[in-house]
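Priority: medium. Attachment 1 of 2:
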């Protein structure tokens, strides 16, 4: 590693962050995202940490699989709609 550079996800605490997810998890994530679910609700439903949600959002948006939405990453739906 180059000196005087900051490398992402190299600290010991980062070992607890998942960087791989099942196709089903991503499909559900996209569904909940498009329905406006809050990041907190998505986290509860899919058992994801907030940092994992942020990484998924960045990846999916960069790949064109999700778009910006009202409320941004926080969404607008704070409880599940029946």
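Attachment 2 of 2:
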């Amino acid at each position: 590693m180059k000196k005087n550079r900051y490398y992402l996800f190299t600290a010991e605490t980062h070992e607890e962050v998942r960087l791989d997810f099942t196709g089903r998890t991503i499909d559900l994530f996209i569904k909940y995202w498009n329905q406006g679910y809050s990041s907190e609700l998505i986290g509860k439903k899919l058992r994801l940490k907030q940092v994992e949600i942020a990484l998924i959002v960045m990846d999916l948006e960069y790949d064109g699989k999700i778009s910006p939405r009202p409320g941004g990453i926080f969404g607008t739906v704070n409880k599940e709609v029946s």
